[in-house]
Amino acid sequence: MDILLQITIILVCLFYGARKGGVALGLLGGFGLIIMAFAFGLPPGKPPVDVMLTIIAVVAASATLQASGGLEVLLLGAERLLRRNPKYVSILAPFVTCLLTMLCGTGHVVYTMLPIIYDISIKNNIRPEHPMAASSIASQMGILASPVSVAVVSLVAFLAKAPVDGHVIDFIGLLSVTIPATLAGVLAIGIAYGGMLGKVYAEILESGDPAPTQALLRNGSGRLQALLFGTLPQCGSELVSYTVYRWECALRASVVLGFVGAGGLGQLLDSAAKMFSGGEVSTILLVFIALVALSDRISALLRRALA
């Protein structure tokens, strides 16, 4: 009974914190910690000093890459690869953005690549929605395969304190699993969802008022400028909303795929359930619920910003 009450308190704090956003999320998290410590007598854990120091090191490394011009070199190399093989942009673009995320440790590098992918697609009579949608998904999938991402470094620090069958999963061992799994996921999920998103993107863009776009084209603007300043301002909110919705569907699909051996949260949940580990099952379910709630919150914030 206590475990159900504790889960309810955590979910309530997450729900109201996500609705208020900003500092409120941290304050409500602290309020929930106080309840757990003083009302239920649960001993609070130690601050994750190792993880915090690791995050600082990763952020400093990313800043050094940007300041030294290394990020520009990577982006130029990616652009050169795509322009030399324009007919295969729908396949190469997702792998390029995934690789950039793995090298840079952040999925935000995709924002720089999207105009390039659009330009290459248009010049080769390829619908740009397909490679752009697949690239957006692939860039986020590469985070768990990046040796310099905060997510991977934090996970390594956590696994170092939780050995499996007496063996500690180290940095190399983790990457030897996540890198092949990520590349397979980019091909299996990213391309499939890119195809779905591409069709919907095309319908959304075609449903907008063509007058602003045509006016820009008649006055000498290029196709990219017409898209950015004529079409996207009308359809941006709907495009973002549907993209985040498909991302939420991908999260749920990843759990289902895990039950058939594809890895991820689903495989962890299946293993914990078979071992009758109630605490671990509850933790995984809470993480999954938090991910879905986070995606819904991000969608609401983006729609509000674009309204």
Question: Briefly, what is this?
Answer:
The chain is built from 13 helices and no strands.
List the helices and strands and how they pair.
Blueprint: H1 2-20, H2 23-39, H3 49-67, H4 70-84, H5 89-104, H6 110-123, H7 129-141, H8 150-160, H9 171-207, H10 211-218, H11 223-258, H12 265-274, H13 278-306
Helix pairs in contact: 1-2, 1-13, 3-8, 4-5, 4-6, 5-6, 5-7, 5-9, 6-7, 7-9, 9-11, 10-11, 11-12, 11-13, 12-13
Notes on the protein architecture:
It is a single chain. The protein has 307 residues and is mainly α. The protein has 3 domains: 1-45, no CATH class; 47-207, no CATH class; 208-307, MetI-like fold (Orthogonal Bundle). Helices cover 79% and strands 0% of the residues. The protein has helices at residues 2-20, 23-39, 49-67, 70-84, 89-104, 110-123, 129-141, 150-160, 171-207, 211-218, 223-258, 265-274, 278-306. It is globular. The mean pLDDT is 77.
Described by the principal axes of the CA atoms, the overall outline is globular
From the N-terminal CA to the C-terminal CA, the straight-line distance is 44 Å
Major beta-sheet overview: none
Could you spell the SSE succession in H and E letters? HHHHHHHHHHHHH
Number of strands: 0
User: Total number of helical segments?
Assistant: 13
- Arithmetic mean of pLDDT: 77
> What's the domain count?
3
Query: Structural class of the helix and strand makeup?
Result: mainly alpha
Q: What is the radius of gyration computed over CA atoms, rounded to a whole number of angstroms?
A: 22 Å
Q: Which percent band covers the strand fraction?
A: under 5%
Helix percentage range: over 70%
